[in-house]
Design goal:
mainly alpha, 57% helix
């Protein structure tokens, strides 16, 4: 499963900035894929971007996929920022 997620991640990253790529919620999608890989740094990077852009990830911070970040002060700051 991890190989599939990494391939999907490569696809998402490759299409960023291309006209056919949908800009809406791209940071949320990247955060979700990195979270599935339990990549703390990149998940936080893209969650922060999603919150800044007011993407859907801001509403999903309490999702089980992000539970591994619950002790991270940056994650708690994001939760506070969006009012969770």
């Amino acid at each position: 499963m991890s190989a599939y997620r990494r391939a999907y991640l490569a696809l998402l990253l490759a299409r960023r900035g291309r006209p056919e790529a949908l800009p809406f919620d791209d940071a949320s999608e990247l955060a979700s894929v990195y979270a599935s890989l339990h990549d703390r740094q990149d998940t936080m990077k893209w969650l922060s971007t999603a919150v800044r852009r007011h993407e859907l990830a801001a509403l999903e911070l309490k999702a089980p996929a992000y539970a591994f970040l619950s002790s991270d002060p940056r994650f708690r700051a994001l939760e506070k920022q969006v009012g969770l």
